[in-house]
């Protein structure tokens, strides 16, 4: 009884792999994953605008109308080392100083800021700016990148400068001045 064995099993395996790769590449070529678009097809108009936004946000962690609340902490988080604590905030903004971040350093008061500035009135109503960056809160000026946006700020890029206007050591409440410089269409 004769057995049917290919003379070179590795050659057969190689041939099957090669045919599989060729068919995969052919499928990718005929149905591309990406394509080039004209910016005007998305309603983007040249030239870009550069906007400067100036406001204050009020971070109230104690008192009657709290706007920032700790929601998690690491087992090693203490008052003297708040590293690993996570808070959420919904701070009001004002145009004058009248009244999701996480602590990201073991050696200084530094926050990882991941937040959206949501506009609910005026010419930017319904739009957002997204900021993600490190904020060493006791530095005089902190700079964080604007990484995107929506609405009027779709495809936005720029940076936000934060300066502490007031900070109450007893309560932890703060007013922070923001200057945001953003390119957008």
TrEMBL record:
Q: Where in the cell is it found?
A: Secreted, Extracellular space, Apoplast
An example of a Gene Ontology cellular component annotation for this protein is: apoplast
Q: Which Gene3D superfamilies does the UniProt record give?
A: Allene oxide cyclase-like
- TM helices/strands, residue ranges: none
Which GO terms are recorded in the biological process aspect for this UniProt protein? phenylpropanoid biosynthetic process
Q: Which PANTHER family match?
A: NUCLEOPORIN-RELATED
Tell me how this protein assembles: Homodimer.
Q: What is this protein called?
A: Dirigent protein
Which organism encodes this protein? Gossypium raimondii (Peruvian cotton)
Q: What is the lineage of its organism?
A: Eukaryota, Viridiplantae, Streptophyta, Embryophyta, Tracheophyta
């Amino acid at each position: 009884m004769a057995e049917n064995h290919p003379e070179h099993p590795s050659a057969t395996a190689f041939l099957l792999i090669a045919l599989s790769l060729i068919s995969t590449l052919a499928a990718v070529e005929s149905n591309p994953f990406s394509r080039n678009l004209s910016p005007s097809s998305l309603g983007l108009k040249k030239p870009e605008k550069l906007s400067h936004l100036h406001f204050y946000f009020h971070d109230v962690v104690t008192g009657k109308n709290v706007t920032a609340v700790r929601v998690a902490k690491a087992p090693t988080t203490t008052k003297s080392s708040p590293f690993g604590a996570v808070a959420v905030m919904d701070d009001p903004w004002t145009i004058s100083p009248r009244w999701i971040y996480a602590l990201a350093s073991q050696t200084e008061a530094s926050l990882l800021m991941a937040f959206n500035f949501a506009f609910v009135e005026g010419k930017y109503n319904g739009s957002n700016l997204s900021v993600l960056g490190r904020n060493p809160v006791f530095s005089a000026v902190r700079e964080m990148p604007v990484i995107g946006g929506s609405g009027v700020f779709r495809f936005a890029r720029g940076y936000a400068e934060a300066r502490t206007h007031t900070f109450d050591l007893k309560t932890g409440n703060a007013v922070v001045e923001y200057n945001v410089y953003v390119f957008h269409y």
